[in-house]
Amino acid sequence: xxxxxxxxxxxxxLENVWAVVSDIxxxxxxxxxxxxVRNISKNGNIINREIxxxxxxxxxxxxxxxxxxxxxxxxxxxxxxxxxxTIFLIQxxxxxxxxxxxxxxxxxxxxxxxxxxxNHIKSGTEQAMKNIKEEIER
Length: 138
Description:
The chain has a domain at about 1-25 and about 65-135: Alpha-D-Glucose-1,6-Bisphosphate, Chain A, domain 4 (2-Layer Sandwich), CATH 3.30.530.20. About 25% of the residues lie in helices and about 50% in strands. It is α+β, with helices and mostly antiparallel strands and about 140 residues long. The model has no long low-confidence stretch (mean pLDDT about 95).
């Protein structure tokens, strides 16, 4: 499994950060590794969706659980990626810390390349967090 942790401090209250990151349909705007999102079903705070990732336009299924003002947990349930990505929000005075944790691996024959893609995922996550920060702090 590739374990990746990236965080950024954003000069904005938690509510402002939540307004941006909880709009999970806009994920491709910030996360360049996600090309497209298609929601399949929604039951309360649980969303099942199909995402198209930039890696060879592969489709993955996710179950996303939204805990308002706290975290967004995406579990990969089908596709080339197995594992999860969780985004946490932590109020820190007048700032908000946005933290993303990945615990993923590639499936099937591609699993041998998991360690090779770790840096790619980390770099993409750092860029996404920078994009989110810039959007909020404008």
